[in-house]
Amino acid sequence: MCVISGMALAQDLNGQLKVETVIRPHSDKTDVTSEVIDNYNYQRDLFHVNVPAAAFNATDTLAIKLEESLDNSSYTPVQPYNIYGSNVTVDASGTCMLFSEELVATYTDVQFMYTGRCPYLKIKCDYSGDVATAPTV
Prior knowledge:
By secondary structure, this protein is mostly beta strands. It is built from one helix and eleven strands. β6 and β7 (76-77) form a beta hairpin. The longest helix is centred in the N-terminal third of the chain and has 4 residues, at 13-16.
């Protein structure tokens, strides 16, 4: 997963954008949380998530969750009105995308934008169940 943070105040494109890989590709079925995404000097964050096909059982899921913080110590789930993107619906736990047996082939390459004002973010891959063959996220 990668994030592109952008601001409109710099004079050149290099000063306006920051591109980071926040979660390295993995397929070991363990929950993974990114390092802190410090977007203090940026106005928007564009997340790009790629999840290829995988073998999910009926009760298995992979949730992509986003959390925000004002002080980098206490994180809360991101609010639905702070996320924009097609095929992205945020729930109360901050889940932006939920991959399951039915949806893993449909949403393989998704982008969504965080427009909130919190300067610190974390993104998580949260597996539940016993995914037979985990995707490389």
